[in-house]
Amino acid sequence: MALIAGVDEAGRGPLAGPVVAAAVILPNYYDLKGLDDSKKLTPKKRSQLFVEIQHQATAIGVGVVAAAEIDKTNILQATHQAMKMALGRLKPRPDQAVIDGHALPTQIIPNKGVIKGDKTIDVIKAASIIAKVTRDNMMEQYDIIFPAYGFRKHKGYGTREHMDKLRLNKACVIHRKSFKPVASAMPTLSWLRKEDGIGQWGEQTAAVYLVERGYEIVAMNVHCDPYGVIDIIAEKDGIVTFVEVKTYSKKQLGTPAQNIDQNKLKKLEAAIHKYVVDMQVKKDIFLDVIYVYLKPSVPMFEHFKGIRLEA
């Protein structure tokens, strides 16, 4: 029998965060009680089905296009890109795809659009759940990085609460500056300098950089008195990484590593040791340094990995 993939997206409308697409192939026989369009399900039921789909699906592919990429093209092109990424990550490759809404302009994999397919076709319903829960989980990660905006609650959509916080705090790194309400709220480097916000912006930018590379952000700006503050705590592949961020808005001489002297390194190690003891961390731990050079356009990064520390 032909392998049919269902494709749907989440996040076309928000003012912040990525657009996420999912492609799902289901086996001939599956047991997904309550399967429906993700928008009709409670968060608890979506999460339950998310796990069940992962266990039962023949294949799942996910594509994520970040806000910066959305700004470079437009949301329609970014959505198509995410869908193509999701289809390209399916193993085995499907014979055909059914897309919620309109067909993809490319027919590398033969596909057709089905209007309101997320209400009538099970593989599209499954894809809608995978896309929605994946994106919601990402927005909850971003809520740790940007606590001032309430992303955990509204997931980046233009609610009244979000609009109020956007006006109060200006936009952040994951806001879509090509969307009209955001464009007028984008901070400039001069404004950040005036508000003494360069360091925080750099730390948040570094945290987004880590999320986009598969890290989970555990915490930001953790105070470990009397030793100081840990900028970012992240985890990937069972390793806990403590990140020191150095941010510059003007070119500097030297490297981040050269800007961390022995006294600073000792304080960092003491702060990390206190956190590890207090939180009873039993995993391997590393200290990384990320250099962020803020430019008027796209920030530049240098990531110095892997000073292994003893727990």
Structural summary, described in words:
The chain is α/β, with parallel strands linked by helices. It has two domains: 4-142, 2-Layer Sandwich (Nucleotidyltransferase, domain 5); 196-309, Trna Endonuclease, Chain: A, domain 1 (3-Layer(aba) Sandwich). It is 37% helix and 25% strand. It contains ten helices and ten strands. It has helices at 43-56, 67-72, 75-88, 122-145, 151-154, 160-169, 180-183, 189-194, 198-211, 262-279; strands spanning 4-10, 19-25, 59-65, 96-100, 111-114, 216-224, 228-236, 239-248, 284-293, 300-309. The strands form two sheets. A five-stranded mixed sheet has the order 3-2-1-4-5. The mean pLDDT is 93.
List the keywords:
alpha/beta; 311 residues; Trna Endonuclease, Chain: A, domain 1; single chain; globular
Short summary of the structure?
Helix content is 37%, strand content 25%. With 311 residues, the protein is α/β, with parallel strands linked by helices.
| Fraction of residues in helix | 25-40%
Structural class: alpha/beta
Number of domains: 2
Fraction of residues in β-strands: 25-35%
Average pLDDT rating: 93
CATH class of the largest domain: Alpha Beta
What is the element layout, followed by pairings?
Blueprint: E1 4-10, E2 19-25, H1 43-56, E3 59-65, H2 67-72, H3 75-88, E4 96-100, E5 111-114, H4 122-145, H5 151-154, H6 160-169, H7 180-183, H8 189-194, H9 198-211, E6 216-224, E7 228-236, E8 239-248, H10 262-279, E9 284-293, E10 300-309
Parallel strand pairs: 1-4, 4-5, 8-9
Antiparallel strand pairs: 1-2, 2-3, 6-7, 7-8, 9-10
